[in-house]
Design goal:
123 residues, mainly beta, two-stranded antiparallel ribbon, 1 helix, 6% helix
Length: 123
Amino acid sequence: MPEWGNVGVLGSEQIDALRFQYNFDKLGVDQPASFTYQILTFSQSSFPKIQDLNELKTLFDFKLVTTTFDVKSRDYHNYIKENNIKFIVYDKNQLDSKLTRAKILELVYANDRYVIFSIKSDP
């Protein structure tokens, strides 16, 4: 299951993106990871003849397509060191509350709009 997901919607109320985040932190070295998903898109004008919701089941009939790809990990600690990053600024409305408990970050400033963290040199 994804850790989280959301649907991006345009001002016209049309979906423009599906976003999922998968955390593979419990995988061992060279241990394979996989996930599957289905997407069904239609509108009332696309399928005006469907009167019974049970008829929707036929729309989910599909042949499984398998795609293999490498999952690469990101080590933000090394990225911070390599780029000499000292501060991180977040939009308070977008801030994941888990970040406030990160040992590498120290709260420097916060108001109703922004949160600023300094990055500790030795967490």
